[in-house]
Write a structure and sequence with these properties.
By secondary structure, the protein is an all-alpha fold. It has one domain: ACP-like (Non-ribosomal Peptide Synthetase Peptidyl Carrier Protein, Chain A, Orthogonal Bundle). It is 52% helix and 0% strand. The termini are far apart.
Length: 122
């Protein structure tokens, strides 16, 4: 077997593991529940185990955008990426830009706010 390929696969698993760990930390912080630090990656985020609601879901998405530079709500209109922790990690992993200074991704300039949209950006 190709040793370079094995190293890449181990590195990918390590990155996935780190990403899942960070997402668990974000979940625990957004919900105030430390028990979510050990939640299964297959647990339904809006199901009984995690129990996200609209407020905690919004907090989760805001922190994901700040840390990883990925606007889940803007790129996944059906929010399928929020089905499970694993689905969210895969979504972020596919789209995340390189981290900026301080370990956070630079999400770029903010989009128009509600007032900007209503006024046509003026």
């Amino acid at each position: 077997m190709n040793h370079g390929r094995q190293r890449r696969e181990r590195a990918d698993r390590g990155a996935d593991s780190r990403l899942l760990g960070e997402l668990r930390e974000i979940l625990a912080q957004a919900t105030g529940r430390e028990d979510l630090l050990g939640v299964s990656e297959q647990a339904a985020l809006f199901g009984p185990c995690v129990g996200l609601d609209s407020l905690t879901g919004t907090l989760l998405l805001r922190e994901v955008r700040r840390r990883f530079g990925v606007d889940v709500a803007g790129e996944d209109l059906n929010l399928d990426a929020l089905a499970t922790l694993a689905a969210l990690a895969a979504f972020i992993g596919e789209r995340s830009p390189a981290p900026g200074p301080g370990g956070t991704a630079d999400p770029g300039p903010p989009g128009p706010g509600p007032a900007d949209v209503r006024s046509g950006g003026r």
